[in-house]
Design brief:
The protein has 293 residues and is of the alpha/beta class. 53% of the residues lie in helices and 8% in strands. The protein has one domain. β3 (123-126) and β4 form a beta hairpin. Mean pLDDT is 79; it is low at 21-71.
Length: 293
């Protein structure tokens, strides 16, 4: 993926090294197989989807109140300036801002307001409650921030399709896709609908939300490639491999030996591949209407 020539977003709040505001399973981020199995057992006995506990990008809702992060020290600022992954994330975020500031008004008549991306280590507070590395990246509509512990990229290299720049960018773009849904009023409508549903029905609706975010990540990639020719040979295949590796069926089978489709909240591997590819090929927001499929 070509990203070096892109501008860096300034909408990043780097909380790494500032204290966790809570505990994180496994300390620095990545889960070992023992922790995965424990979380799978918790999910089984409580009825909570293990995908959420293990590595989800589920939209988190709750009553938590975000607390302002202290200003970074000079040493932290210097470390951030020399951090290649932070620089990469800042440039990808800048690309999403430039794309959606153009595409969203053109295609839907809605102005784009950029979210903040919070980098943290282990645990931190969000407007949706506690953020922990075990949850994976997620978007919080209450404060319009994306939360990312970059140790998730290590997990991607080890467990989720092998990683790669475009695969990492896809993860960021997926969460920004949730912000686009928020600006379009979709998340609020989904939350209202869920309050009238049983668990199985609510899970099915969550799947539609997540698949749409996959498709919107594809729309971003289509437009970014049109503007800056970001895609190199093999990039799309790596992103699709990642989408496949983080499907609910694959993750549940790895954690507990079997999959429970009624508990899916993000979609199967095949579904995630399909919708990412749809956005990549069309470049159109309207092609991402997963609620009518």
């Amino acid at each position: 993926m070509e990203w070096e020539q892109s501008r860096e977003s300034t909408n990043i709040e780097d909380r790494r090294g500032q204290g966790g505001g809570g505990f994180a399973i496994g300390g620095g981020g990545g889960l070992g197989i023992g922790a995965i199995l424990i979380l799978a057992a918790i999910g089984y006995f409580t009825g909570i989807d293990p995908r959420i506990l293990i590595g989800g990008a589920e939209i988190v809702t709750g009553a938590g109140v975000s607390t302002p992060a202290p200003a970074p020290s000079v040493q932290q600022q210097q470390a951030a300036a020399n951090d290649p992954m932070r620089r990469f994330v800042a440039k990808v975020l800048g690309q999403t801002e430039d794309v959606w500031s153009k595409v969203l008004p053109e295609q839907k008549g809605v102005q784009y307001t950029a979210p903040t991306l919070v980098l943290y280590s282990g645990a931190t507070r969000s407007g949706c409650g506690q953020a922990m590395s075990a949850m994976g990246p997620f978007y919080c509509p209450n404060d319009q921030k994306v939360y990312l512990d970059m140790s998730f990229f290590n997990d991607m290299r080890a467990k989720y399709g092998g990683g790669g720049d475009f695969a990492y960018a896809y993860v960021v773009a997926h969460e920004i896709g949730h912000h686009v849904q928020d600006l379009l009023g979709i998340l609020a409508k989904v939350d209202d609908a869920k309050s009238q549903m049983n668990r199985t029905q609510a899970n099915a609706l969550s799947v539609r939300v997540e698949l749409m975010a996959d498709c919107l990540a594809g729309v971003w990639a289509y437009s970014a490639n049109e503007q800056w020719r970001i895609l190199d040979p093999g990039d799309v295949e790596k992103a699709i491999a990642t989408a496949s590796a983080i499907g609910d069926d694959r993750l549940q089978t790895a954690a507990q030996g079997y999959a429970v489709p009624d508990s899916f909240t993000h979609g199967s591997s095949a579904m995630r591949q399909k919708w990412l590819t749809t956005g990549l090929q069309s470049g159109q927001i309207d092609s991402c209407n997963t609620f009518k499929q």
